[in-house]
Every structure is written in C-alpha cells, then in structure tokens.
Design brief:
With about 325 residues, the protein is an alpha/beta fold. The protein has one domain: Purple Acid Phosphatase, chain A, domain 2, CATH 3.60.21.10. About 25% of the residues lie in helices and about 20% in strands. The strands form 3 sheets. The chain has a 6-stranded mixed sheet with strand order 5-4-1-12-13-14. Strands 6-7-8-9-11-10 form a 6-stranded mixed sheet, with helices on one face. Strands 2-3 form a two-stranded antiparallel ribbon. Strand 2 and strand 3 form a beta hairpin. The chain starts with 7 loop residues before the first strand and ends in an 8-residue tail after the last strand. The chain binds the ligand Nc1ccn([C@@H]2O[C@H](COP(=O)(O)O)[C@@H](O)[C@H]2O)c(=O)n1 and SN-glycerol-3-phosphate (G3P).
Length: about 325
C-alpha cells in the first residue's frame, strides 16, 4: 500500500509475561526470557512513539508471568502498566491466564483500566468512524481469576471435569483433536457476553462499521495449536458468522503465532510472544488500517501479514 495513507495505525504486542526471575522454559522446553520481555516492551513503546503517529496500542494479554512470586505480583503488574503508559496514546488491554494467576479480577481490571460490570472484562471502542474494535473476555468462564465459590468457577470446573479426565487439568494427555483445548489455562465466553457480542455486531452492521475482534485466546483452529483455543471458539464464531462486519480476529496466547482465513473469509491472526524473544530480539508490531485491509508490520520475530477483505458490511 505504498503511497497511500492508512486511515489509522495501532501498535500490537502480546504475552510479555514479565517477571524478575531467571530465564526458564515452557513445559515443552521452549526458552522463556522473563526479564528481557520488559526490554521488548520498552522497545515497542519507543517505536510506537516515534516517528509515525500511532493512534492507540493493543496489549493482547498475559502481562506478568505466573512464575512471578505472588508477593511481587502487584509491583510487577504496575511496572509493566507504567511502561505501557509511556506510550503517547491510549492502550487497550485484555486479560490473559497469566494476569489472573497473579491478581484477582477486582485488583487487575482497575490497574489495566478495563471497563467492567460485575467483574467482566469485555468492551468495545471505535477509534474512528467506520471501524469498531471488540475486546473479548476469554476467561469469562474460567477456573482461574474468579473467587473459588463463584458460579463461573463452578461452571468452568464442571466443563473441565466433563472434558478432561486428567488429574492435572492443564494436561492434554489422551485428549484427541480439538478436544485438546479443554485445559485449565483456557476458558470460555459466557452466554451474557455472547448476547452482548451479538448486539454489538448488529449495531456495527447498521452503522456500516468494520469490526476487529481481539481476544487473548485464538478463535480459529487453522491459526492456532488446538491446546490454545478458546473452549467455545465455535459458539463465538457462530455469532460472528451471522454478520459480515467482522473482518479480522487477532489473538495471542499461542506463543509461536499463526494465521488463517476461515470459511467466511475472516482473517485470524495470532501474534508471536514477546516472552520468547532471545536477548536482543523483538516481537511487536503495528497495524496500518485501510478501508479494505489491515497491514501488520511485525518487528523481528513478529511476522508481518496483509489481511485483505471485502469492504461491504451488510447483514447476511
Ligand atoms: N503438554 C502439556 C503442556 C502443559 N502442561 C501443563 O500446563 C502448564 C503450563 O504450560 P506452559 O506451556 O505454560 O509451560 C505446565 O506447567 C503443565 O502443568 C501439561 O501438563 N502438558
Ligand atoms: O499461557 P501459557 O504461557 O501457559 O501458554 C499457553 C500455551 O502457549 C498454549 O498453547
């Protein structure tokens, strides 16, 4: 799109998972650089501040790692938030599983300035006429983050009990195909949020807006490992597919990144994790938005992608 000005541009980063602890590895042995991820975030903010004008930034969740000692969680979350606040514009956050390992929702949401009703963390915003962003709360039904006796914890534990026979509910051992997503580090979007999403998409369709859906967990098996998918990605996509206003879904969580185009022509893009950048390397980017495409320009380990779509937004 050389020579053509984008309508607007925004910064993206995911899975910073900062902690002031030595480097480690994921369960499957992938190196994780808990301290260096802060430097990745700092370089991201520096880039977003200079020289091009970025209208806002989106953090796709998991700001502090679950291995952060609990007595340091608040300080670590505040440290990461204060780095984001060095960006000269609004930052839209969403919650990930690691955020919830560190702080309960009631403490986390105000720190991240996430609008909330009864502890929920879904919201929408329109950065410019003609475009709407929907931020989903993928841990709405989850065994992490709500009080132990909360109906949503109980509902999540019931799902895990039915779907995952392992005593370690984060283990996919023995689960086949897409059933491998029923792990404790994932969650689902509850009925109330699904109704809200339907209402937002109905309204966006009336307003002829194009919609970008953001969620910590991926929503399409083509873009993600089965183990990283939202439990009820299929129900969420059934709502989204009632309309033609959603053009792109962006996620984090599956640290290696991914991309797909689903049966309705919607792009699904998964961002590579800042946490897994060896010292000196980076994973952040920015998106230039046009009337018919989103162009993601990734730095270093973050892949770039051009997501072209039809530009009508009528009800199907
Ligand atoms: N194949 C796997 C993957 C993970 N687990 C459990 O999940 C926890 C988190 O995994 P990370 O990828 O974030 O390290 C891990 O500590 C294991 O308990 C598993 O059991 N099997
Ligand atoms: O959120 P984490 O760090 O436990 O990682 C989740 C995995 O990437 C999902 O496959």
């Amino acid at each position: 799109m050389q020579g053509k000005q984008p309508l607007f541009s925004f910064g993206v980063i995911s899975d910073v998972q900062y902690a002031d602890i030595p480097d480690g590895r994921s369960f499957l042995g992938v190196p994780r650089y808990y301290r260096h991820s802060m430097l990745v975030l700092q370089r991201a903010v520096r880039k977003w501040n200079n020289p091009q004008k970025f209208d806002f930034a989106v953090n796709f969740g998991d700001i502090v790692d679950g291995f952060c000692p609990k007595e340091d969680s608040l300080k670590a979350v505040e440290k990461v938030v204060s780095e984001f606040e060095k960006f000269n514009g609004p930052v839209y956050h969403m919650i990930g599983n690691h955020c919830l390992y560190n702080l309960p929702r009631r403490n986390l949401l105000p720190l991240l300035k996430i609008p909330t009703l009864n502890g929920s963390a879904y919201y929408d915003f329109s950065p410019t006429p003609g475009y709407r962003f929907v931020v989903l709360d993928g841990y709405d039904i989850s065994a992490i983050g709500w009080p132990r006796d909360h109906p949503k914890t109980i509902e999540a534990l019931k799902i895990l009990q039915q779907k995952n026979p392992n005593s370690e509910k984060n283990s996919p051992a023995g689960l086949v195909g897409l059933e491998r997503r029923f792990l404790m580090f994932n969650g689902a979007i509850g009925n109330e949020q699904l109704k809200w999403l339907d209402g937002i998409l109905q309204d966006a369709t009336k307003q002829k807006e194009k919609v970008v859906v953001c969620c910590h967990m991926p929503l399409d098996p083509g873009a993600s490992s089965k183990e990283a998918l939202c439990w009820n990605y299929d129900e969420v996509m059934e709502v989204i597919h009632r309309y033609s206003c959603v053009k792109v879904c962006i996620a984090g969580h599956d640290h290696k990144g991914g991309h797909s185009i689903d049966s309705h022509g919607i792009h699904h893009h998964v961002l590579e994790a800042a946490l897994e950048c060896p010292p000196g390397s980076d994973a952040f980017g920015y998106v230039d938005v046009y009337h018919d495409r989103l162009c993601l320009l990734g730095t270093d380990r973050m892949a770039s992608a051009e997501m072209v779509f039809s530009s009508e937004g009528d009800l199907k």
